[in-house]
Amino acid sequence: MAALAVTWTGAQVWAAQSPADAEGSAPVPTLTWTDCQGGFQCANAQVPLDYRDPQGKTITLAVIRKQAADQSQRKGTLFMQPGGPGNSGVDFVRNNYADLPAAMRDGFDVFGYDVRGVGRSSQVQCWDDPTYTQAVTNAKGVPGPDAYEPAVKQAADFDQACQANSGEVLPYVGTAYVARDIDLLRQALGEDQLTYYGRSFGSYIGTVYAAMFPDRVRALALDGAYDPEHYTNQPYAYDRPQYLALDGAMGRFLDWCKADQATCGFGDGDPRGAFQKLKADLDANPVTTASGGKANGYTLVYRLMFNINEGKVIWPSLGEALHKAQARDNTSFLLRPPSPASFDFLNPNVAVECVDKDYPTDRARLKREVTTNARLAPLLGPAMAYGPPTYDHQHATACVQWTGEHVSRYDGSFRAKGSAPILVLGTTGDPDTPYKDAVALSRQLDNGRLLTFKAEGHTAFGRSACATDAVVNYLVDLKVPARGTTCADETQPPSKTPTTAPSGTTLGELLNGVNDRLDKLGRLR
Fold first, then answer.
1. Rounded distance, CA 86 to CA 218, Å?
2. pLDDT band at 252 (very low <50, low <70, confident <90, very high)
3. CA 59/CA 20 separation, integer angstroms
4. pTM over 0.90
5. Rounded to whole angstroms, what are the CA distances from 80 to 47, 184, 207?
6. Under CATH, what is the fold of the domain 34-124+170-228+413-487?
7. In which residue ranges of the chain is CATH 3.40.50.1820 found?
């Protein structure tokens, strides 16, 4: 874990009650750019650790940009924010810049940064790698009837580790403070208003920014959007649809396997039954991996949870990987246990959401909600509900027991009254951020405009030429799609497992062996 980069610059105490209170209170950081290879420039930004004390301790944020080739033609700076929480914005820009449409690269300096508590910006650490490895190795794809109490105890241990290892920064990693950071960075870059693309959790960050600073919005594209009211104030109402969306996507894949057995190659006519049996078989007799680790039913569920996000284009690859797992072939990418790169993502993923969300402390309700989620999502739900603290919808056991402060969370309103038009993108079969969340956000915003992508998979930009063009036209020229715009150009399953990444996906797991965060945009151009 990198040491917390905090410095003390004064003792003035100040409490921000509204965005206007922050005006002029926190110093705008000075960015000293240096070359960091590939034409990118990197810098560090000092921002307040606690915005109630804007002249006090600071935290260092790592930032990156690539300037438009013709500065005389640039329209400004485009902020790009990845999902998570836990993904690096620096890596997001560096890894995706070449695949951005030319109009975005030509029209903007493309900018990203690691938000507080993530990556190079004082990354949160809770469990260390050996502890996380042990936890996921012991988890089950088919948990037993007595799995609930051990899950609660394990989550409490995770919370204690968070406080012990990152307690100095934890109260301040919530999204209200992230939005304030963005506003300081906007000023540091000389921009009067914000131009922004955020995907998945990045859409929630953009939503909060718009709510806090509506008059400072030029254009925000929010892809794979959250229902912000449910996410932060009614988290159980946010969790259950995510369980159902994930299981629904897995179910539709297995139905395709049954209908196209020749291409899928898994299930022998009963893919659902074969999948449930495979989880139990792997739990009972784990496969030894090439590195000497163990892969069981939980490993399978964990990998599917992220890979199903790629949409139909990866379905033949998933079928082949399941068939290999059934044959106990450890080259199946679904049998690669979570790695230290996963843990770098998962630690802040849990911690940030526990700061952002307001879970009721009622333990009886916690048990009812968790057990109901597991029952209603039988394919992937039980492993996540009763597993160690890992990803998104599985955070209730940790967050109900969270003892840290919530001073940096934002609890509404989410109207963003008076903002410029905000583009919201939702994918109908999204396994990670349910489509109905995008609908809800578009209605909560005073000036939201919904674009629908009829497809499987997570997010739309980079996977749909139609949606990508709409985002480009909006961000570059402020052309808002017509109401009711629907994109129907989903990439269909190929006839066999591809050996190179087809348009609309990266197949990161298939090509690279392991890609623990799957936060790369598709390549359409």
1. 26
2. very high
3. 22
4. yes
5. 19, 16, 14
6. Rossmann fold (3.40.50)
7. 34-124+170-228+413-487
